[in-house]
Amino acid sequence: MKFLLSIVLFVCIASETFAQRKDAKFSEEMKAEMCVKVKAAAQHGWQGYKEYAWGADDLKPLSKTPKLWSKTSMLMTPVDAYDTFILLGLTKEAKEAKDLILSKLSFDVDNEVQVFEITIRLLGGLISAYEQDGDKKFLTLAQDLADRMLPAFNSKTGMPYRYIHLQTGKKRDGINNPAEIGTLMMEFGKLSKLTGNKKYYNTAKKAIMYVYNKRSKINLVGEQIDVETGRWVKTESHIGAYIDSYYEYLYKCWLLFGDKDFKKAFDKHNTAIKKYLIDKTPNGWFMRYVDMNTGKETQTVYGALDAFYAGLCAFAGDVETGRQIQEANYYMWTKFNIEPEEFNYKTDSVISAYYILRPENLESCFYLYRKTNELKYLWQGKVMVDDIVNHCKNDVGFASLKNITTFEKANAMESFFFAETLKYAYLIFAPETTIDLSKIVFNTEAHPFKIERNKK
Ligand code: DMJ
User: Which end of the chain is more exposed for a tag (fewer CB within 10 A), N or C?
Assistant: First the structure.
């Protein structure tokens, strides 16, 4: 009995402390301390890259060896990190990254690349570098890269193949997905605005709108589509991997270019997503998997990638839905003290136990804080940043986790850790003037693009 009472007392005190902390004051000094912490993390990771992987794509932080994505390095980490260094005021690091990029980066290489990854990380990084810094060499590199990727769109439907060889233009894998087809629009579209050549915008728009026009009667899309026939190969619908940023770009392209076709498409999908995917639980609003034609539930899986939708909802004006989904996101994070890649939110059991330094939970936290100014998002941000530093930092950088239940590390430091995770972490605590969301839109890799003013 005594034992039971003390457990009840402990639970009461613990939840009261959490409740108090959610609304507790977060002083300007504490915000500044968090900014210093995030900057130090960026410097630490970059130092490791410089010492052990200079000129490579990424650093492998456990073996302390370089990682190449293809035959020849295309400087994934420096390009992804550059605008984060600028934003964080790390001028020395920004100069080092810029010098390396402009002296070494070439796309005339014997590399087969994944169109989506290279677009969001490299093309996006180079475009934002050009807009931030003004050096035309960034734009020249970006245009050369885009020209080499354009043959990927040569299909009967205009939707791109997944892989392209940068020298031969040989394309491969015509079973693509909405995310990898749609998440090219901001980068190719922006390139048209910067160069005056409309072909990039038109090519990417034809592809994303093809997906939209193949939506089901209930306005959802599936997970895989054949780029030659336009036939859906997998009809499961959700907001996770292979679909996620297709929805994100419909909204963001409306903001960026003012093209109403994107807004119409986003609104249609968003209404359907809210109707069929949201699952309201006591732990927050999760997003289920359903069949794209019937809307019937297929799985109750949720994970690190899905967490972006809270921020997108809030950003797109539905703060209340965003707030409820962020409750689920934070539940997922704190349940395991770092989120898993995937878990079953009905049974609380882990499906994929790894954590690869993903940003989406922090990204949504940032948008929710910007939209509501509620202190709880500062606390959420602090908990997540502290957990990442405590569990992922090693002597030369930050490592992914093989398993979030044991905190065993894995030998990878993805470039999006610099581009996104650290950027959103910093922006939660930095003065609002650091980034004006009425003037820029982040691409899905958190590269800021200036909003075009000529709305149509
Ligand atoms: C990033 O490359 C982008 O955010 C993409 O949209 C999803 N995956 C990673 C981060 O998790």
Answer: N
